[in-house]
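User: Can you help me understand a structure? I only have the sequence.
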Amino acid sequence: MKMYVGNLSFQTTSQDLQDVFAQHGEVTDVHLPTDRESGRPRGFAFVTMGSKDGMESAIKALDGTDLDGRNIKVNEARPREDRGGGGGGGRGRY
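Assistant: Let's start by predicting it. Here is the structure, written out as tokens:
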């Protein structure tokens, strides 16, 4: 029941997200990634709801709505794609 929330304002906090999403069901986790160097939020978050109904309600109600002056994007989170490792370009010479 994890959702991706994008286009967030840098002023949006985990508590803000908790409060907004809790209107649609139990929020079990809010993860707001920050930039390693600056410590500022990266503009997106992951919110986990306690039920599928809560998640669907939140997506339907909140996708495209204004939060802290930004129209947020809310959808079901997809698993990370395996990006593979290293380059591996070029061919061997015979």
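Now, to help you interpret it: The chain has one domain: 2-76. The longest strand covers residues 44-49. Let me know which part you'd like to focus on.
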